[in-house]
Amino acid sequence: MKKISVFVVCIFIAIASFYLLYTRKPQKQEVKEIQEKKLPLLTYTFKNLKKTHFPSTKITIEMKMGEKTNSFSQMFYFSTPSSPDKKDMLRVSGLMNLPKKKGNYPIIVMLRGFVPDDIYAPGIGTQHVAESLAEHGFITLAPDFLGFGESAPPSSDPFEARFQTYTTALTLLSSLSTLNEALDASYSGTIQANTNNIGIWGHSNGGHIALSLLAISGRSYPTVLWAPVSKTFPYSILFYTDESDDHGKALRKALSNFEVDYDTEAFSPSMYYGWIKAPLSIHQGDVDDAVPKEWSDELVSNLEKNKIDVIYHTYHADHNMLPSSWSQAVGKSISFYDANFKN
C-alpha cells in the first residue's frame, strides 16, 4: 500500500512540475515583461519632471511686430526638448514686449489660455496685459507653444501634447539666462533683462500651466493668475468637452486608453500644490462662466492650508475681467510684481 502511495505522489509531482515548466512562465519572466512594457508618458509625471534637468537654450530675437508710445513687441525663438528624456530639439516661437527706454528690467513669462488654432496669432490671450506691463517697465515673453505660431508641431498623442506645455515653459525659464545675449545683439546693451527678477503671469489654462511649473520647479517666481484652471486632471479638461464638435467623444476615448496604463493623479498639478514655494496673486471674476469662482475659492483655501503666500482678489467680472475690472486687475498685478521684486 505504501509503495502505491509513494508512486501516486511521484506521479503527481511529475505532472505538477511539467505544468509549471511548460505551461506557465516563471515569475521573473513575467516581471521582466511588465518592466519592458513601454510607458513613455511616465517621464511626464510630476515626480519625474521634478527630477528632470531642463536645458538652457539660446534665445534669439527677430522681426518687430508692433509699437506703442513707450514699448514695442518682437518675435523671439528658443528650442525645447521633444520630450524630457530625449535630446532632439523643437523650435518654439513667441512674442516679446519691451520698454523703449534704456534700462534694466524684470522679466515676466506670460502663459495664455486656450485659443482655437484657426484664429491663433502670437500674443493672443496675453498681449493687452503684456503691453501694460512693458509700459510700466517689464520685459514680457509669451511662448506660442508647440503647434502654434511658427513653432514646430507637438506630439501626435493628445496627452503628451498637453504635457509638452509644461516642458516647453520650464525650458523657457531655464533659457532666460541667454536673454541678455540676444538683447545685446539687438540693442547694444541699452535694454537689459534683470535675470534675478523673474515672474510668471497666467490666464485660464495658462494658470494651470503656471501652477504646474511652480510645483515642478519649486522656484519662488512671483506669480499672478487670472481665473486659473485649478481642478484636478483630467476633470480640468473634461469640464470643457461640451465645447468640442463631437462633445468630447474622442477625448473620452483617448482618456479611457490613457487610464489603462497610467495613474492620472501622477499627472495632476492639484496633487502637488504643496510643493509650491512662490508668492501668488490670484484674480477671479464672480460671473466667470469658463472658470467658476468656486474653483479659485478652493485653490486659495488649499494654498493657505499649505502655508503658501497668496493674495486673493475678486471682482464683479467675467473670465477676462470685463466689463469694468480689467484695469483694476492689471494695476494690482503690477503692484504685486513691484512689491516682490523690490524685496
From TrEMBL:
The keyword Transmembrane applies. The chain crosses the membrane at residues 6-22. The keyword Hydrolase applies. Keywords: Hydrolase, Membrane, Transmembrane, Transmembrane helix. SUPFAM superfamilies: alpha/beta-Hydrolases (SSF53474). One of its GO terms (molecular function) is carboxylic ester hydrolase activity. Gene3D superfamilies: alpha/beta hydrolase. InterPro entries: AB_hydrolase_fold, Chlorophyllase-like, FrsA_esterase. It comes from the Bacteria. This is Peptidase S9 prolyl oligopeptidase catalytic domain-containing protein.
